[in-house]
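Give me structure tokens for this 539-residue protein.
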Amino acid sequence: MAHISMQSRSKTFRLQTLLFLAAATIGAAAQPAPASGSAPPAGATKPVSTRLPLLMPDDFVSLQLVSWRVETGTPDPRNPLLEPAMPWDSGGIMSHGTVLHDPIDGLWKAWQVSTPGEEKLDGLKTVHEHQRRLTYLESKDGVDWYRPLLPFVRWPGYDRTNILLDLDSGGTSVYASVFVDPADTAWPYVMFVMRGPLYGGQKENKVGHLPGPKERLGTYRYRSKDGKDWKLIEGPIHPSVGGGGDVSFVYREPDGSFVSYFKSYPPARAGDRLIPYDNNSRGGLRSISRRTSRDGSDWSGEQLVLTRDWRDPDFAQFLEICPIPVDGGYIALINYYDAVIQTMCLQLAASRDGVNWWRPDRRPALANPPLGDWGGGMIWQMHHPVVEGGRMHVYYAGSEGIHGEIFDTRFGPRLKIGGETVIGVNTPTLPFNTALCRATWEFDRLYALVPSAGGITPGEAVTKPAALGGRSIVVNALAKKGGALRAELLDGEGRPLPGFALGDSAAVTDDQHRARLRWSGGEVAPAAARQIRFRLHRA
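Here you go.
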């Protein structure tokens, strides 16, 4: 497993994946990552990686007996960070919003959705989707969160609440994408949020002073001087950023343009299996599409970027992509929905262009704990991961329960499948009883190459040709007990160079984030070096 860096005396070059082993694509050195407090607006206008140009499988000309390994996030031992406690959030401290470290005042802030609880469901009829209010949280350290009492929205018995947008100001609110730009001294906070008056039960289809959406939800743009008192300035944005669905996060690109990733429903293909009780009246597969915009007002047509492929089981569907830019592309966590057991976990993905997404491994990067625990049913992540101090934090709402009912004996018709009796019709979405949680990764160790056989059987990887002469090679590698990473340098014909063959290599046999490779011929690649062959043994 190796992250590779190439250095000359006058300039630093790097070859590396996000973890452990990489290829031989050479690029200019990444600048040190800004602290989140000094970073561009949330959604990132600059890559936030420290030294991790993005490499993919096609950066290698040869992969033999190796597979990709995905590191799993570590749930915070203090989870849940904030539990339901107030009447307006007794049904869930939900996500569908943004967490960021504010560069203006140094506070951690969350713009997220809260819902009242439902003690009784009348024939599985729920109202939680019509009761989603945008609320606001703060924290001094990103762990201990509190609800500031604000004057904008009252609740029976409470003159002050942390509610920012109530139902009577434009209906239900979901998917708040918030950006903070310290350079804009007049209106440093901007937000895109989906709203739906009729969907929320209002009589008049209006959002504030603007018309309501044609679909059940539409995207509206707000701005604020302090991130709390929001002013409606535009909407519904045309075409609907969410494509008529109920999932849409908006991001800023490095050139100042915008991109939205949203849930879409391409038609089911021949052989696709739809689940009887799954709440999917559209008849398609939950997938993820993309739109772009130069100004955030006029948006392109819909482009499908992620749907089930041949490596996914026939119950797999997708709801969210939440990316951050890194050198050479993007890293994202994807909400992976299992329509059979009605749960949702997170998978890791990478992309060079934000359109073509590659998943190193289909196993969870953040798995569900047992049902009944926070996150045991569904994991709903916030707008984007937060990177600070070499750590990547993913904030999420962890639900105790599943997405929809499966076994309820009060309802039918019922089907006998595989020895079980299940509900045979679409059931409504159950209330999302959630709490705020987070999980953390080492940011320079997200995925890796490892030997696919293990044991004494090594794996090999050979990089694409590049001019390597005059440079040293630094690897981010972990070798288990008895394991080793070795490398050799090859010429333009693929032949080992004298003094730089595998037998001349000083093996990496421990855990090092920046280990400089050395050979009997030295640690600087000779002029004829064009490729690197890595050999991994329990590493």
